[in-house]
Amino acid sequence: MFKFLTYMQVLLGISLIFWSVCTLLSGFVTSYWQLALLRFGLGLGEAGCTPFATSLIADYFGQELRGLAMGVYNWGIYTGYSLSYALGNFITDANINNQGWRWSFIIAGIPGIVIGFIILLTVKEPKRGQKNLPSTTKIESSIGNATSTKEKFKQMFKLMRPSLLLLCIASSIRNAAGYVWAYNTQVYFDGLGQTPTQIGTWMSWIPVVGGSIGVVFGGFISDRVVKRTGPHGRIWVLALSQIMSSPFAAGVLFLDPPYCYFSLLPNYIIGEMWVGVALAVLVELVPADVRTTAVAAYFFIISNIGGNMPLLVPSVKRAFINAGYGEVDSLRNTLYLFFPGEYILGAVLFLVSLVVLHRDIEYIKQQQEEKVPAKEDTHSQMPSNYGSASTLATDDQ
């Protein structure tokens, strides 16, 4: 009766609508507990969107376009971040109907409700794992799929492979840099004497332009590289992009306005290449049967580690103040550690993951060859649920 609730596009649409309704209703609260309850619901709806959307994208797009598709999807991060400055500063200042900040939430919630219903009415459920198959191979999609609870637990255990764990840790550190900067952007520029209008003017377009270019360019480059080198190529894109962007991140803190904003743009373009690329690596290294769970676990890890990193900022800032630095300089020095500093640390950890990635790919290849019947050509026919990783592992044939 409720089989339709197992479809990814239905769950995605419901999650988005629920998220957006909670956002819209936040503009009508009259007490703290109402707002707290809606924030809980907002987080619940948000948590469901990316795992379902990523799983759909992985099934709709093959290896040759997957990184680019993930990048396009992640445009939403930077569009939303930029719009938050436009809505938070300009709409609040406009004081529509004498309601101040309330209209920011109301306006922000409406588009998601509309898009959620569009998803429910137009997006079709793809066949699980079909885009993982090599283009020259036509085999049963059931080969290697988890068909029992015991088998599914075995598949889940494979999510604990070292390369995946290192990818999660590296992504968590890099994500932490973004969280720290996002939570302290307004405070930092306020300390430099910038007005809300000045901050809103720059920050309403720099993240969306720079970030959107970065995630799409990163996906495009990694899709080109992966054809030659396998998933190792995507890891190199992850590491090098963070190393190259760290000087621009430092420039944001070193330079005075408006030059700091000029440094922020290339920081977004280069530094945000990692988002879609990391997701592409993840979905190519896990079975199709547990892909949604893997993505959910990935975001749980990077959100909890990265999202809690800003809590360390006040303590470190206080240590600099006690050492004799001023308020602004203390925040700047703290951000040096947590902004460009974590770019570099994340890059190092991405490179470390290369050490174990080859071993994990060989393990996947060995496992799938054991599952393919002996009469079939195991060199060219790969199980659908490991298709991407195995194809990448044998791309030199």
From TrEMBL:
One GO CC annotation: membrane
| Keyword Transcription regulation among record annotations | no
**Biased composition, Polar residues: where in the chain?**
380-397
In the record, the note on similarity to other proteins reads: Belongs to the major facilitator superfamily. Spinster (TC 2.A.1.49) family.
Q: Name one GO molecular function term.
A: transmembrane transporter activity
This chain belongs to the protein called: Cis,cis-muconate transport protein muck
Superkingdom of this protein's organism: Eukaryota
Q: Where are the transmembrane segments?
A: 72-91, 103-123, 164-182, 202-221, 233-255, 261-283, 295-316, 336-357
Where located?
A: Membrane
Q: PROSITE patterns recorded for this chain? A: MFS
Give the organism, scientific name.
Daphnia magna
Which keywords does UniProt give here? Membrane, Transmembrane, Transmembrane helix, Transport
Q: Where is the composition biased (Basic and acidic residues)?
A: 370-379
> Where do the segments described as Disordered lie?
370-397
The reply to whether Transmembrane helix figures as a keyword in the UniProt entry is: yes
The cross-references to InterPro entries, in alphabetical order and at most eight, read: MFS, MFS_dom, MFS_spinster-like, MFS_trans_sf
The UniProt record lists the Major facilitator superfamily (MFS) profile domain at 1-358
Q: Cross-referenced Pfam families, in alphabetical order?
A: MFS_1 (PF07690)
**Topology in the lipid bilayer:** Multi-pass membrane protein
